[in-house]
Fold these 2 entries.
Entry 1:
Amino acid sequence: MTTRLSGAATYQHGSEKRVIGNVLRGSIGNLIEWYDWYAYAAFTTYFAKSFFPTSDTTAAFLGTAAVFAVGFLMRPLGGWMLGRFADRFGRRRALVLSVTLMAGGSLLIAVTPSYHTIGIAAPILLLTARLIQGLSVGGEYSTSATYLSEVATPGKRGFYSSFQYVTLYGGQLLALGLQLLLQALLTEQQLTAWGWRIAFGVGTLAALTVMWLRRGMDESESYQREAGETTGERGTLRALAKYPKEIALVVGLTLGGTVGFYTFATYSQKFLENTAHIPRRQVTILLFCAILVAAVLQPVFGRLSDRIGRRPLLLFFGIGGTLLTVPLMTVLGSTRNPVGAFFLVLAGLVVVAGYTSINAIVKAELFPTKIRALGVGLPYALTVAIFGGTAELIAQALKSAGHEPAFFWYVAGCVLVSLIVYGTMRETSKTSELEERREDKH
């Protein structure tokens, strides 16, 4: 039985063209959400004094950093709220809601007057906007991971779901690219006075466009079938509590992956500037190029997982991350050659791709449809908030204490924990309900 939902066409698995269209609309929304998320970090140096007292630059930066951290901690709440919403009311509706929240948060940042104009209300409105964006990003991951996995063609789920991280990297690249463009077109004074608002205005318009596109997405067949068969506990914590092993697996899967990702994809920028002492513009360019290559690798690794399974790629990441993190980071900290630094960062991102390219599909394959979005989103968001969100803080604290190499061992240790999980878990592509239900139907 297939249920037609209001505003969405009935989904037909047999049409590869419709699959591609749905994946594109789901993925581009993820790209814009992550652009909006990264734009905050990219333009902090320009808007910090607009929201906090201008007499103390350090205090202004600390204020914006604190707001960023609070937004990060909202992600578990977003994973719970929108994951529950997606399991109860549909993936499409949750994805529309998610990008609408992001548009609202970006618009609020773009139009909020400065501290000089409205006083303490300025940082309060900034905090409110960031809380909204945190909810949005937390819910976007769980819902898009679930949606892309469910609408993908059987046998190509790894390939299609990998576009979640293609667009995550893409959002980071867009934010960096716009920053470079505005730096070329505007003076430093113009960027500080008003130019930074352009970034959030662009994000608002893009998010509103995606909201309109997502309204025409097909609901996943898995959800439509489940909606017609079950009610009651869909998307509840009580239902999720019946899957303690799967919850633990999500935490174990994510722990090393999120620490490795934030180390090589984001912290490496500050590491190259402060430890390797490579000029900032060169660091921005080499990191941009490395992330671009990493984005291209995601579907390659995802398609490979469809052929050989998910565990081999996870083991590739686990073994590589455990053995190579310390030597890679040690050499990276002593290099002064931007080209050499590019290849070292890229090597780290290639290893991390063993996790990032398939993490969405692996987690989606662990849970049944009625609890999939919440099961993917909540334990993932909690793990990312606790370990991914603190990675840079731990790195900076150890550097300040004169024990920077200890951070390299910390990252390797986190990956080792995940490696143990990868070595003992089942091959999810062979036991997933996504495929079992497909076989039942025929």
Entry 2:
Amino acid sequence: MKLVVQVKLLPTPEQAAALEATLRACNRAATHASAVAFAKGLKDRNGLQKQVYGDLKATFGLSAQPAVRAVKKVVDAYSALKANLKAGNLGPPTSKRHRRAVGAPIAFRPEAAQPFDDRCLSWQYDARTVSIWTVDGRLKAVRFACSPGQLKVLVAHRKGESDLIRRDGKWFLIATCELPDPPVYEPVDWIGVDRGIVNLATTSGGTNYQGRRLGRYRRWQARKRAELQAKRTRSATRRLARRACKEKRHATQVNHVISKEIVSVAQRTGRGIAVEELGGIRDRVRLRRDQRGTLSSWPFRQLGQHLAYKARMAGVPFLEVDAAYTSQRCPRCGHTGRANRPDRDHFRCRRCGLVGPADVVAGVNVRDRARSAWVFVTAPASVP
């Protein structure tokens, strides 16, 4: 499996200036290559490289390998655009978003991420430094900081390119690591996980991870943003920029803690993890205006991704099952109806009288569906 490790660079002011100049030069070169590709209809790497390789070196000051990486970045960007158009992510061909995407060449931000391979970037793990190519020459002994666990993964499994990123005035390297997949064991049972807004995650065993604290934190952040926006001063604008990603980082940390605990329980008890397949829920559900902000900030997808990759790293079976009517179906008699859930928190079956917390009942239904689905997943292929 592929895992990305983010380390923080600690450059001196002179090194930071060289890194910034390099990032801007590479993105100017990529924008130029993108314009050539758009004008001449060149979407393959070899054809585009023949057209722009000399210009990237002579005009933008790139050496051989960074010029090749810039061309590759342009080709990958057009490949991603083509995939999004094919999947309909940019709307129908008549939509304004679709026409804007195909009507002009792709442009790269001055500080967009730039990939570096092993010819442009080398790691010195013992000294915790990197050596990186820049437009001002090779920078050596650029310090980086990471946790002991991240360093261990880098030493053992780093492979391929590393991306140089500047975010909020700080420098980062994102390295790709290829870890071997551990064998997935045969589960003795399943842990069904129901994801929600009030309760971020509820397991079939009754463990409840409430989102009340996260909700209070989001409302507090919203009030602070409103107060700063009302001031309309330069100082308030700077403070808003500093606080921009703080709420996102907090929600990500909450999801990490929840997913780590669920995976550790599953691994310790020999069970698998099952979640609802909630793709496209924001397109299907229509809410009042005052509820839209809550739904748009609901980090359910990230929690599912954390559960999936942590389970894969631990060799824990992981399944996504159909989410239809999991909170309205009785797990004992199978009766399904909207009346079974009189309010958000409670479940009462109208046929057999089963009563319980609605989120726990949904987790039990997810677990039962995983039991049935695992039989088909592990069934041997039929012989014609």
